Amino acid sequence: MLSNPNPNSLPLVNSEEFLPPISHWINLGGLFIVGAGGVAVILASVIKYNVIISASATVRPTGELQIIQTPMEGTVKSIFVRENEVVSQEKEIAIIEDSRLQTKKSQLQSNIQYNSQQRDQIDQQLTALDRQIAAESDRTKNTVFSAQADLIRTQRDFEDKQVTTQAEVQEADANLKFSQDELQKAQTELISIESRLRAAYAILKTSKSKWNRYQKIEKQGALAKNLLDEAELAVTQQEEEVKSQKALVEGQKTAIKRQQRAVEAAMARRKRVLAFVNPSKAIVAIAQQRISQEKAGGEATLATLNREQEALRQRRIEIQNQIARDHKELEQVQIDLSKSLIKNRIDGTIVKLNLRNPGQQVQRGEVIAQILPHNASLVIKSLVRTQDRDKVAIGQDVHIRIDSCPYPNFGTLKGTVKEISADATLPQNIGTSGNNSATMTTQSNSNGMEKGAYYEVTIQPKSFSLSQGDRRCVIKSGMEGRSDIISRQETVIQFILRKARLITDL
Fold first, then answer.
1. In this structure, are residues 55 and 485 in contact, taking their beta carbons and an 8 Å threshold?
2. How is the chain split into domains, by residue range?
3. CATH 3.90.79.10 for domain 48-63+376-506
4. DSSP state of 450
5. Higher pLDDT, 302 or 430
6. Which of 63, 231, 251, 428 could bridge 214 with an S-S bond, Cβ 3.0-4.6 Å?
7. How far is CA 118 from CA 91, 104, 129, 330, 347, in A?
8. Burial (CB count within 10 angstroms: exposed 0-12, middle 13-18, buried 19+), residue 367
9. Is the pLDDT of residue 452 over 80?
10. Pairing between strand 74-79 and 92-96?
């Protein structure tokens, strides 16, 4: 039976020598398996299933979320709201510590009050200076007018004095001439009296000679007694005449001396009057100088007052400008104070609050809250990987599972692809064109998404609630879940062949 006579080799064995015979059931089972495989292949070629693209989903409102930003830098003093709270318009969100602004406001108000008082004092000083300038101007005018009047009076007195002096000179000349004439007249009369005295002496001598002759004759008895007496009487009378003429001569000499003194007095008066013929103009010059001095003094005083007034006006302008700057700064402080109380501007729901506790530091322009308007409709945002972009098209059906509405209890939410972003972006950049997806980065990471670029797909749900019996789950903004986008339908055999890479994925 051995084909190889080599005793060291193993003997050949036939299968029939150790396999048991195939039973009838095994044959039937084999036939069943072959038939089942054929049926499975037929069913796999006929039955179709949905090819889905799974992506994270977030319920977001259409349009933009209303963001609340801090208008100023500071420390949060109080927080009046919390997340998911429904707020109305003008609802107070928080208040920023404003003690620094209050201090600045008080300082500005104090500065304004102080500067206003300074301005009022300057106004009073300006009013007083106006009155003082007016009074000084009037005083200067009156003083100059008085000095001019004095000058006119002095000039008039000078002219009158000149006229009076000329008249006095003429009068003195006349008096001197009159005195000289009287002296000459008295001297002439003296000559006449002396002539008469000499004549009286001659007559007396003749009378005495006659009387002596008569005495001799009478002694001789040749003459009558009465003739001697007549001769004696004539001598006596003539002696009296001589005495009288002598007295006249003496009186005339005295008159001449008196007249000489009168002439001397007239000459002295004339000299005195001549001394005032040309009166000095110094008094007129003094009066004119007084006018100039009064004008110069008044102008100097007015110039000083005007300089003080101008300095006060400049100071007032500076104070007024400072008050205006303080008012403007105070208005800004009041605006900042009004900004310290942060209020909501629309009716809605706070979907995100970035304020944790009082004392938190915030920067100017920092987003502290996001508010969903009440009238905003909702859509679902999904992030589709770039390799799945060609499998997604507008109008495709979508099944969404909402985490807040458990799938076993409420099922899935039906929807349709409404919009696909034109370009892929990184998860941290998705939604930056608006405020709807501002939190999708955190949500995407929490859903286990891989890092890389994604397309944002907007899904329009057919309803905004899920219900099961009497239980109802309302879809709200911010809810998360998973979206299954039905890309197409294919048979099982196509799936197997595609996985086996025997056909291309069209």
1. yes
2. 48-63+376-506, 67-91+344-373, 101-294
3. no
4. P
5. 302
6. 231
7. 44, 21, 16, 19, 50
8. middle
9. no
10. antiparallel
Q: How far apart are CA 171 and CA 165, in angstroms?
A: 9
d(CA 419, CA 142): 98
Indicate the length of the chain as a whole number.
506
Structure tokens of 355? 């304020």
Name the pTM for this structure.
Answer: 0.45
Instruction: Write the DSSP string, 43-102.
Output: HHHH-EEEEEEEEEEEEEESS-PEEEE-SS-EEEEEE---TT-EE-TT-EEEEE--HHHH
* Tokens at 106, concatenated: 């008080």
| Rounded Cα gap, residues 193 and 242, in angstroms | 11
Tokens 């009440």 -> residue? 374
- Tokens representing 502? 């025997």
C-alpha–C-alpha distance, residues 209 and 223, integer Å: 15
Q: How far apart are CA 309 and CA 132, in angstroms?
A: 11
Residue 85 exposure: Cα atoms within 13 Å on the Cβ side: 14
- In 3D space, the residue among 361, 332, 345 whose CA is nearest the CA of residue 77 turns out to be 361
Tokens of 168: 């006095």
- Domain 101-294 fold is Helix Hairpins (1.10.287)
Q: Please give the share of the chain, as a percent, with pLDDT higher than 90.
A: 5
CA–CA dist 344, 93 (Å, integer): 6
The per-residue pLDDT for range 382-440, each reduced to its tens digit, is: 999 988 888 888 888 898 898 888 888 888 888 999 988 888 887 654 443 344 443 44
Residue 341 to residue 80: CA distance in whole angstroms: 11
Joined together, the tokens standing for residue 52 give: 């889905």
190 has a pLDDT exceeding 60: yes
More confident residue, 223 or 82: 82
Sequence-distant (≥ 6) Cβ neighbours of residue 115 within 8 angstroms: 319, 322, 323, 326
Q: Which of 46-60, 102-116, 149-163 has the highest mean pLDDT?
A: 102-116
Residue with tokens 């303080």: 326
Helix (H, G, I), strand (E, B) or coil at 476: coil
- d(CA 426, CA 448) in angstroms, rounded, equals 15
- Give the span between the Cα atoms of 176 and 172, in whole angstroms: 6
Which residues, in sequence order, are bridge partners of residue 66?
371
